[in-house]
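Standup notes
- DV: blocked on the single-chain target, sequence here:
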Amino acid sequence: MSLSAPSPAPSPAPASAPSPVSDREGPRQAAPAPAFRPGAPRPPGAPVLALRPTVELPPAHTALICVALPAFAISTDQGQLMGRGLEGFYRSGRRVLSRCRLRVAGREPVAVQARMLSADSARFVGTLRLSTDARPDPEIVVERVRHADGTERITLHSAAERPLRLPVEVSLGTDLAELGLVASGRAGPELPADVHDSGMRWSSATARCTVTADPAPADALASAGLLRWELDLPPGASRSVELRVRADSAGPIRATGHGMKRSFTTASATGDDPRVQPLLTRSVEDLRALLLRDPDHPTDMYPAAGAPWRCGLAPAEALAAARMALPLGTRVAAGTLRTLARSQLTGPGTRSGMIPGPLRDAGPHLPPGCTGTEATLLFPVLLAEARRWGLPEQEVEELLPAAQGCLRWLRTAVGDGTFLPDADPDGPARCETQAHAHRAALLGADLLDAYGIEGGAALRQWANRLRSAFRAEFWVEDRAGGRPAMARLSDGRLVPHLAGEAAHLLDTGLLGSGTLAPGLLDKVQTEQLARLVGGPAMDSGWGLRSLGSQEAAYNPFGHRGGAVRVQETVVAVSGLAAAGYEKEAGSLLRGMLAASECFGHRLPEMYAGEQRSEGGAPLPHPTACRPAATAAAAGVHALTALVGIRPDAPAGTVTLGPVRSVPLGELGLTALSVAGAPFSVRVSRLGLAMVEEAAEGLQLGV
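- DV (later): unblocked, structure below
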């Protein structure tokens, strides 16, 4: 599913990963680099860059999206599917039904409420007034419950004083268009329908769709795609009609998530803050809804990046989401690792051992980056931490060769240098990339040592060298105390802008015995970064901005130019809390929770970085994915970070490092997973943590 034509990238994406639909996370057409950056004065004589026509994605921020991949349904708050914009039922990136318009007694119900029931279902309520007298009261309540799997149940409830016989009509239609064509406005006209069985059928050269109804309609008109019933409603009675969408003659749409109830634990949260329970519940639901199976290895599951735009495998996002979701279990982490290990590049060449991934837009100050670099560095980190959380040793050993390949690629890419360039050997060394590389080296070395494999010492030596060089050569000095640079160019110049990507410098990674790996910054620099991250230029009141509000080319809606990215916000929260900067961590966390409440506890991948005002609400980004895997997993990570769970399943211990300032008051988390067994923990209002349930033999470490 793609709205932009693919272009060559430093590492090709795996065949199972569809191209993204926007430049935000995907490859862009090659173009000469401008002689100046946006936000900077144009040098005399520099050419004026003409704006290229772009495809405008239809807004999705107000849509109700029911997801159970590979199926999802997109609706407006009116409940009717009119075939406009993105509306419709989808399966595997194709719209199988675009129009489902209901009339009762020749009229459309007046919409009064629309809300999500769960990640894969939504409820729409409308009313009808049938009386001819002066009373304004509606007598009929029309309820529609829509499921991502292609089922819709329409129920009429009567409050009339007399029996009613109501004609009910549903007009159906579809274009059987791919999502990319729908989003670009090129879906084409609706296809002609045929009456089939107890419903309608549509066919094209590449697809077929059937809608059946229960009970069978009294009449069907193919030319209008119309199904009609006469329903008798005694006073106080209810009558229902159920529609079922079938695609490609494969039977009812059965989304992958329906068989994945055991993929994650049914974790729950309690405490003083009433927002923690709905946030955790919705986060787990959304993660399940976004799970896909590898078609060639159906036991392996991985999270898709998000709906509606990125319903396929995005390696870096899948690994990041699986890592943040480790407190819910290791099964999805193992499936993600195995799926990506099969795509790992092998053979001779400098890219051997790399996990392929497309280019990604990096904002206004840097050229696009390679998500393959990020994925390759995240692979050994996820494997090492999954082992600590309880991934069975047999599965770890199975994945070790792929992790070794990633670490060999890292050493090859660095060569005799110190910093790791991204996407291009002569390209910039990004701050975020150095943080990922440093963590991969330390956790990778720890993993190799655990299995008696050579190479750990060399990785630690390089990590030490990187740490020393980064502290000296990646820091921009100024009168306010300095800041980490966004990137270092090949000629040694620094890109000085303050960006949310610096939050990854606080994410150090989990080693054995509940200890954290050392960070790239020293104590003074870490304190300065905490001050900057917690300051008004970065903390919007709703979360961490991706670019400081005082920086050139700041745009509150810029994906990496000022918008709040939930993943980076939570990385900052957990890193600040672990480093002891609880005030800054608490401020970011409370802001994100307030935003979550405004979004119905289903966080989008990003939203505008406008400064929070009293009584205000965060501005949604019109093309953000919601649900998104990293945002859903971030909800889990944010709450578990308050407890500071640091397991070491191979050693049979778990260490707790709760946030002593208890920014959300008392907090209890139940039915997490450590060492393959349920794990429950509670933090009191005094900041004291107590394990309430754990695997037999698991010891509380100090």
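- Follow-up: Residues 393-414 form the longest helix (22 residues).
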